[in-house]
Write a structure and sequence with these properties.
Elements: E1 28-32, E2 40-46, E3 49-60, E4 73-80, H1 95-109, E5 120-130, H2 135-149, E6 159-166, E7 169-172, H3 176-181, E8 184-191, E9 196-200, E10 203-204, H4 208-237
Parallel strand pairs: 4-5
Antiparallel strand pairs: 1-2, 2-3, 3-5, 6-7, 6-8, 8-9, 8-10
Helix pairs in contact: 1-2
The chain binds adenosine-5'-diphosphate.
Length: 244
């Protein structure tokens, strides 16, 4: 198949297609407790990327044979709605969604006190309602907030963002077009209070120096997202995770 010509992603003055500089996040909106039926929920918007997360539990594990005697199991489903992409996404779970569900689950397991709820299950649902790049990182950020909103004991929150390389420049928070036409895309998830990396993937090519720069840039973006997470929790509960 013929490949579409690669658009110029950074102009002479260093501006990206949406007007951002290389180190700018897209406009960020974070909300918590947005859904009534679940035990905890959150919503995140990064530019045109829009993601909900909902949490149920802890509750008795079903089917019972899945229960683990000394801890809760954490189920996680990352899913893109059919209307989240330019071309209607197929119904049902794709291989990509199954893999991302696992990667996000493993990141969340590292911060939840699962041992406090033996034989239980915690269900985390991530629904991407509009996808414009960075949905796995937005999903992880929202899921950690939804767990906190459900009152599930956690060591700390997780904040995540992707960095990329386009036209030879390392950029923060790539949009879909930058992701598709760029040279590299690297989603990063960090538990900021302990400064622990809980998710790191790299598609494409970066030199060692670019990788270092990318990680530094991701940390800056993550600090901003983390601040927004703490603020919404503080607004709803009067206390932020940094104070507990
Ligand atoms: P992430 O959303 O975490 O960056 P990818 O790098 O796999 O994950 O995808 C980048 C972007 O590509 C998505 O955010 C979305 O805009 C688009 N995309 C992913 N899967 C599909 C799909 N099945 N159909 C159309 N666009 C998709």
């Amino acid at each position: 198949m013929e490949q579409a010509a690669k658009p110029k992603l950074i102009d002479e003055s260093g501006r990206r297609l949406d007007g951002r500089g290389p180190t700018d996040l897209r406009p960020l909106k974070v909300e918590v407790g947005v859904l009534e039926k679940s035990d905890g929920s959150a919503y995140i918007e990064l530019g045109k990327t829009k993601v909900f997360a909902a949490v149920y539990g802890p509750k008795e594990a079903h089917p019972k044979h899945l229960a683990v005697p000394d801890r809760a199991i954490l189920n996680c489903r990352y899913h893109m709605t059919s209307f989240s992409t330019d071309e209607r996404k197929t119904l049902g779970m794709t291989r990509r969604e199954i893999e991302l569900s696992k990667v996000i689950r493993e990141a969340l397991e590292s911060v939840v006190f699962l041992e406090e709820f033996p034989r239980s299950a915690i269900d985390v649902f991530i629904e991407v309602v509009q996808a414009d790049g960075g949905t796995r990182t937005a999903g992880l950020t929202a899921a950690s907030l939804a767990l906190a909103d459900a009152g599930i004991p956690m060591r700390e929150l997780i904040a995540a963002v992707a960095v990329g390389k386009v036209d030879g420049t390392i950029i923060l928070d790539p949009s879909d077009i930058e992701d598709k036409h760029g040279e590299a895309d690297m989603p990063v998830g960090i538990a900021p209070r302990s400064n622990t990396m809980v998710l790191l993937q790299l598609n494409g090519k970066m030199t060692k120096d670019e990788l270092k720069k990318g990680l530094e840039l991701a940390q800056i973006g993550i600090q901003n997202i983390y601040q927004a997470q703490c603020e919404v929790l503080k607004k709803k509960y009067g206390v932020s995770m940094t104070e507990v």
